[in-house]
Q: What sequence folds into this?
DNA sequence: TACAATATACTAACGCCGTTAGTTTATCAG
DNA sequence: CTGATAAACTAACGGCGTTAGTATATTGTA
């Protein structure tokens, strides 16, 4: 068949769209190929294998997440910045749940470029916390705590683990964020000692 | 071939062992059958399908988790109980990471029995928090926050997402738990008003 | 004890999957 | 215009979960 000027970027873009519309666990190279009017084997002219494709998509997701987070905290300080950061993260997870799940499959690959993605995840968090007077070491721990809360909340809500009680999930989320801000304030006091 | 008195429980037990030793994403019905000296098709005499098997394993995991948690908090109160609860959860996640991952695949199934598992997850948390003077509504929110922190931390550490900084992951964990206890104390003050 | 029913195993096959090897063909560079 | 390269193809491999149909050993009952 005649070639159609398909690029690596086209393949990745189509994969992203397929994951968002069909769900991550319904994704397959064969159907992706079909969407591009190509046979599955031809995909290997553009990507090395499925893992590499996921890695590429993971980079995209992380960069998108970073973008909305940096936009959200711009011009804000302290609790306001942290709330805005969390809200942006939460909204991203709710609006693009299937894409969000790709992040988790990322770190399994042993790749140097992972480090870049790692710092892209951390940077907005560090930036949002910068208004607090914390030591570097505290910030390294606290960004892990922040990510734990956010990821844990988003993935469990998405999985349907929060349906047990008749209380609003949004209220639970607010409490989680409040807890992190309490921890920030408490850590600040500790640092000043 | 002659039958060998294989039971449904044997199949589930072998599946659990295979997941723990080979990893969840290396699990397959064909290899499970091989371990039981059976053909894959014969498994269907004992289980309806793979989803049902995962569900069954999920119940096992949740009951094991509940067991160690209840044991850990026995005779303890307030912060001490919550710390013991978190430690038991954390230890379980670190010691049996592949089995822990099964929990996440559980809620996708629409099953009434899920409710039972749901309460088994919640019960030890509610019990550990019972020493705090909280409203019922607060406790419903707070158990979600607790599960978010713990699940988020465990799954991200396991996925290798916490390798970026040269600070001890155990210390980050301690900080996360401290944050939750701060939130508990703060919520208690709010409730007393 | 003999027979019928049931439970447990089997073989064979279907339609997916990711991936590789080898081949053809269109485009582009010199 | 020609040769090289890039992008498509066909065919196949070994894996997967699952189903249909069949044989046989055990179990419960008459």
A:
């Amino acid at each position: 068949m005649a070639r159609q000027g398909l690029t690596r970027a086209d393949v990745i873009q189509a994969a992203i769209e397929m994951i968002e519309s069909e769900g991550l666990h319904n994704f397959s190279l064969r159907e992706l190929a079909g969407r591009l009017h190509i046979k599955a084997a031809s995909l290997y002219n553009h990507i090395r294998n499925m893992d590499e494709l996921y890695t590429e998509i993971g980079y995209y997701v992380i960069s998108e997440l970073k973008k909305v987070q940096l936009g959200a905290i711009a011009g804000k300080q302290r609790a306001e910045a942290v709330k805005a950061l969390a809200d942006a993260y939460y909204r991203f997870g709710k609006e693009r749940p299937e894409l969000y799940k790709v992040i988790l499959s990322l770190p399994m690959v042993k790749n140097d470029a992972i480090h870049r993605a790692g710092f892209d995840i951390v940077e907005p968090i560090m930036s949002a916390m910068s208004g607090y007077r914390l030591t570097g070491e505290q910030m390294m721990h606290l960004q892990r705590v922040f990510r734990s809360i956010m990821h844990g909340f988003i993935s469990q809500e998405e999985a349907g683990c929060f349906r047990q009680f008749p209380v609003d999930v949004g209220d639970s989320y607010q409490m989680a964020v409040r807890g992190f801000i309490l921890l920030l304030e408490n850590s600040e006091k500790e640092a000043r000692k």
Remarks:
- The domain at 1-47 of chain A is CATH 1.10.10.60 (Arc Repressor Mutant, subunit A).
- Chain A has two domains: 1-47, 55-192.
- Residues 1-3, 28-30, 40-41, 44, 49-50 of chain A lie near DNA strand C (CB under 10 Å from a C1').
- Chain A touches chain B through 43 residues (CB under 8 Å).
